[in-house]
Amino acid sequence: MSESAVKKTESPETAVLALHEKFLGGDQAKASLRPVNQAGIERFELLKFPHKKHEMYTFVNTHQLAGTAFELAADSPVDTAWVQSKIYPACKNSVLVFVNGAFQENLSDLSGLGDSFKIRCLAEAVAEDEIKQTLLDSLEDENDVFAAINSAFVHHGVWIDIPAKATFGSPLQLLYVSTGSASAPVTSHPRLIMRLGEMAELKMIVAYAGTRENYFINAVNDFIVKDGAGVTFTQVQKDDAESWHCSKTRVQLHRDARFFGRNASSGNRLTRHHYEVRLKEDGAELHLSGASVLVNQEQVHNFIRIHHEAPHCSSNQLFKNVINDKGRSSFDGTVIVDKGAQLTNSDQLINNLMLSDEAHADNKPNLMIFADDVKCTHGTTVGQIDEDQLFYLKTRGLSQELAKSLLTTSFVDSLIQTIPFPDVVADLDEILLKKLEAKHA
Amino acid sequence: MSLLEIKDLHAGFEGTDIVKGVSLTVNAGEVHAIMGPNGSGKSTLAKVLAGHPSYVVSKGSITYNGNDLLEMDAEERALAGVFLGFQYPVEIPGVNNAEFLRMAYNAKLVKQGEEEVDPLDFDGILDEKMKLVGMDRKYKDRFLNEGFSGGEKKKNEILQMAVLGPKLSVLDETDSGLDIDALKVVAQGVNKLNNKDNALILITHYQRLLNYIEPDFVHVFSGGTIIKSGGKELAHELEAQGYDWVTAPAK
Amino acid sequence: MTNETNSKTASVDEVLDKGEYKYGFTTLIEADTLPKGLNEDVIRAISLKKKEPQFMLDFRLKAYRKWLTMKEPAWPNVRYPKIDFQDISYYSAPKPKKKLESLDEVDPELLRTFEKLGIPLDEQKRLSNVAVDAVFDSVSVATTHKKKLMEVGIIFCPISEALQEYPELVEEYLGTVVPIGDNYYAALNSAVFTDGSFVYIPPDTISPMELSTYFRINTEETGQFERTLIICAENSYVSYLEGCTAPQFDTNQLHAAVVELVTLDNAEIKYSTVQNWYAGDPETGKGGIYNFVTKRGKCAGDNSKISWTQVETGSAITWKYPSCILQGDNTQGEFYSVALTNGHMQADTGTKMIHIGKNTKSSIISKGISADHSSNSYRGLVKVNKGATNARNYTQCDSMLVGDQCSAHTFPYIETANNSVQLEHEASTSKISEEQLFYFEQRGISRENAITAVINGFCKEVFKQLPMEFAVEAQKLLTLKLENSVG
What we know:
The complex is a heterotrimer. Chain A is an alpha/beta fold. Helix content of chain A is 27%, strand content 39%. The radius of gyration of chain A is 22 Å and the shape is globular. Chain B is α/β, with parallel strands linked by helices. In chain B, the strands form three sheets. A six-stranded mixed sheet of chain B has the order 6-9-10-3-11-12, with helices on both faces. Chain B has a four-stranded antiparallel sheet with strand order 2-1-4-5, covered by helices on one side. A two-stranded antiparallel sheet of chain B has the order 7-8. In chain B, a hairpin with a 2-residue loop joins β4 and β5 (67-68). In chain B, α5 (150-164) runs parallel beside α6. Classes of the chains: A alpha/beta, B alpha/beta, C alpha/beta. Chains in contact: A-B, A-C, B-C. At the B-C interface, α2, β7 and α3 of B face α8 and α9 of C.
């Protein structure tokens, strides 16, 4: 074997191709999803891993992730009690549990959702042309290499179809558990496609957790929200600190449809959330927010593209990050207002609170406006704890540490408190705010 | 005398008629629902009633309270008690919500030859109306509709209706973009404002709103005109069978 | 103006001629004008006419020689034909019969001119809480309340007078904030300036009244090159207002002023401008003032503060960046601006905040309104030097469009060499649209009140920085100028 050939097998792309071949030959792959896997790997070969100057990864170093050789995560037993502890009490009769991407019927409970809630496994649902086409179409112009990889390896995945006018008493929880590995790092590729019929309403929480280190969870979520329907989508990322996490959430909003997306991220080796939202018809409304608290070398990155394609739509984004030690965060968000999208309202605001000299935050809030009657704002702040505020609290008898902790916590807590599920708020207080206390104690 | 009498109205935008021959009589104390698919001309009718300058009436007449409505400009119509609840209320940054409401309230008082109210007195009036429509007081100090969610904007429209106490209210798709809880709040507010002296025209695409505000008459709008009128049971039939049932050419 | 606005909504055009320039009259006064053209002799002649000390002539000649080596800046986002600097007269003064002892001796025609502008100079009518220095073409014609100010030690006089009476003060500070070679127009101004205002606030003094200067360009082919120098000594405070108007001419007049402010320890200067120079014909764009101005303040002493507030509504072209050099520790710089462009106006305006001392703070609030065929650019620099620990900046930059033929641009520059800096930046773009006005009208609120409400809402952070009478004037000015353009 020549020297250059040796190098080639070591390139990250080749490793993925080799793993893909192994996957197709193994017993995890589903024949019905074969065309999607094929299209996915072809898209991957075209896109390749991002080089340093790639416009979508300006602030995200994927070098370590791309350079790690992963095995596909196998079905693996998990401790039931541990899983139960990750289910929010309000969702105990409306929870779907996935382990390494595979749906666990025995751990899930849908009894609280009633008959109108329909879930099918993707491998089965793809027999329908419409669903298959949705999957293939999403790859046509896929620009995110990790989303392409998800399609290349998709074999679990669920299809949820909410009929018109359906509403549910309790929120739905999707719990994605990754089991990690003591030896080779493992990867899983969960996939969710959800369609809400006209006027349907759903509140959902997606939580990501790991039992141990060394895994890469690479999720893709698709939402098709029909006329007048509304979704509340809260993502809680609390993976193991020694893991990687990518997610892409694609949303299509039709006439008067609403999407309230909230992200809370605890960070890890690398977390990257990609949102691609299309406000396709009049009156669609999007709210997107994100909160993260990063310590040590944790990273959270947000990449957001919002397309205003119709008049009278509104979108707003609010992101808050608290960064300590050598933590890193980035926000790369663009709002694109198409020519015909008159009377668009759009706001974008990113606040960063830096607690150390080595903490790092990159921000790029962009506006691309092709319509002439719009109201758009964007803003970003990077700052330290306000010395005046600190001083004020100290004059009221608070210790330096307590005053600092109070100011830091309140910075993110104002966003966490907007999450409409008390269980989740309590959980985030525990995961995110505890980190701040630990640092100041 | 009827409160509103529309006769063979033809109207549209940039030279094309969208409303093509509508006749409708509305008396005080009545609630009329106009239903129809998107693009059928319902919203155009609403804008024409309120006097939007971009819409042109090519034929027909509208009599309001015995006066020729088409002779009045938007401001005069508003002062005469015509209220439009906008489908998409515009955001106006820098203009305080409470201050805007007071401007509108005072414009009406001046028109009636009464004294303007000062901010303090108005605050009391506003608090009472906010309670009536179930709106959080924090929206008083926000800029007009700025950053409001779709639901909040629609509640704010109903608040304005409550403050101004119009004779004829036209609510254009007030239910769209609302989740079911917000819809109930909005409907309750509207119901509290209805009385025998005023009239309400509800324009909606969906039947859902009519579960909470009961209409006396339902009109089905299609192709720019009313193709069927009936009582509230018509709404249920539409809900069950869809618009095709009435709009299909072979009836 | 109210009877004209009850026209119906659609007829925006009907009201179109309302924004006509209210100050477009010329005053027939015999003027002492130098022939057109610029060379060292002209400069010597100006210096001689003004009976200046030698250092001033040297300053001018040095500036002139520097200017000859410089090029007109090409980076601003404005377009105009090349200016022929030899086709301008560099000195024009209303010819006095003799040296004036009191205002009673000022040419009555001239007094009437200022009265027309709303600035009564004579004793009976003068504004009781505002001291006014009126500058007509290049020369200061009257300064009110001088005596009263002198009682507390405040010097407020034409700079030409200061050069004779307090030459050491002028020499100490002139050119220390805007060096003679700072930029093309500043160099030109340093060479040829003829008058302007001089203010010195002694230590521990709060000025008992607002000081103000009113500028008016009257002669057709004169340039106006005034120079203002304000020094606020330790623990002192002054608020200074500046207003500008000019008559209508088909040719363009050049206005290249330099304003220098200096604050010593714990001092504060608040400088406000309402600029309404003739902007040229709104239809053709012909004529109007080229307003190329260098304004800069230096917070030289610790804990001092300089605040610029400007309402820019006139001039064919505006090129102006009132700036702050935050040299002392704990110093503060502020910039509040409303810039309105309509017709064919072009404005490229903003600020520079240079953080040098520790714990320095700056805030920038810029509101650009563009209407008709105009172009409006914000250009701002926030620079944090290495030693400027804990520097803070807040920038808010909003644009409002009126109509679809105009444009708004934002060019923010941030250079920071210190890690402890705290920066906030916000920007927005919005539009006054027919839909917004319809919304008001549907609630029974008139079109005129609607525009006023929207504009006041948009500009209120800036208006509230202005003294009351100025704020009211500014609001009226903007509403008047915009009523024609919305639609």
